[in-house]
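User: Teach me something about this protein's shape.
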Amino acid sequence: MVAALLLVSTLVVAQPHSSPIDYHDAKGRFELRLVGSWTKHEEPDAPWEACFDDDQGVRLSIHVHSIAAGTDVKTAAAASAEAWTVLKSWTVSLTRELPLDGRTVLVEAATYFVPDADLPETDQTVAVRLVHAVLGEWLVTIAIQGEPDASSRLDLVADRAGRGLTPVAPAPAARSTDSPAADSEVSRAIDFHAPTLQPFPVSFVAPPRWRVTHVEKGDAILVSSVESGIVLVHAGLYDSFDPLYARATALLADLGFRVERSDDPRKDPLGDLRGTIVTSTGNDSAGHALVARARAVLSDKGIGTVAVGFATPAAIRDLGPRIDEIVRSFRFGDFTPEREAMAKLAGTWTLDKPGDAPPGSFAKLVFAADGTIRATWPAGADGKSDVGDGRFAILGGTLILSSQRNGSHVVDFALDAEHLRLGGATYTK
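Assistant: First, the predicted structure itself:
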C-alpha cells in the first residue's frame, strides 16, 4: 500500500494543488494512478509528458517513446538509455522485473550527479528509479528521483507506479438490451463501487458519493468530492488485532499521518465476528492536526480487515458513519490457500548476494508446509539479527507474509528448483 495523502485538495485540509496522481495521457494511450500528495508541474515545454512532486522531496516524471510493435520491455528500455546516460556519472546499480497480470514492468535503480560548476566537490548525488513498461507501440518510463538515503521510499513509489500504470482499455462495443445477464457481467467487471480486496476474498461497498481511487494488494483508498476525509481499507492474513493495527499505523505513516496517541481498542463486534474500534490523533507532514478512526474485524476464515478514516478534528464526526457503512458491508469469501504451491516453498532459503539486495530484504526465510514461517533480518550495527515467526499463504499465485511484527504483506514472487525471487531479492535453497 506514499506521503501525505491527507493533504488531498479540500478533502482534509486546504492544500489546493496536492492530490493523488490520477493522470490520463492526453492521447488516450495510458493512465497512471498513484496514492499520495502530489503537486503537478505546469511546464508545457519541459522534456516530459507530466511531472509531479510530493512533499517528501520525491519527483516523478512521465516519459514516452515510440517503439516498434512487439518490442519487449528490456530491448525498449536499452534503446532509450541514451536519454539518461547523458547525465553526469549515470550508473545503474540494479535491474529487476515486476511481473504484473501478463505483462512485465522493468525497474532500474540508478544514480547520477548534479554538478556544481563553482564547487565541483559539492556535486549532489541523486537516486533514481526508472519504471519501464511497454504499452502497445509505446515505451512509457516513469522516472522517480530523490535523495540517496530515500532508497526505500523510491522503491515503494516505483512498485506502486508500476502497478498503477495501465493502458487505456478500448470502449466496450454496444450491447443488446436483450442480453441483461451479459450486461450484468460487464457491469460487475468494471464496477468500482463494490471492489474485492484481491488476493483476499473480501469485498465491501463504497458509501454513496464516495469512490475508490486505488486498489492494490489488499488495500484500497476512497475519497469523496463532497465530503471531507480519506478512507483506507486493508485486508490481510490475521488472527489477532495487534498486528492488524500495527499494519494500519504503518500504512498511515506511509501516507504522511504521524500517529501521536491512540486510545485503547474498544470491543465493537460485527455480528458474530470479533471487532474493535480505535481513535488516534496526530499530524500530517505539514503539522496539521488530524484524527483517525479505525474499525477492525477478524473473520472466522483467517482474514482480518480494517477501515480507517482520517480527517481534521472538525470533520471526523461526519466521517465516522462512513467507516461504519463500509465495515457493515464487509463480505468474506472462502479462504482457500494453494497448499500444493505452498509445499514447494517448504525449506530454508538464504539471501543470495546480500550486498546487491534491495533494502528490507530478509537474511533467511524458513517456510514450513503447515503455513508457518520464521524470518531472519540482516544483522544491525550491533551485529545482532532479528528473528520473527509468522504465517504465510499463497492465494491467486501471490505470496502473503504475515507476522506479529510487520502485519500482513502481499509480495510478488517467482520460484524454481533452487531460487526464490522475492521483492527484488534472490534467495537460494
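Now, about its shape. Residues 324 and 380 are 42 Å apart (CA to CA). Residues 151-164 form the longest helix (14 residues). If you'd like, I can walk through any region in more detail.
User: That's plenty for now, thanks!
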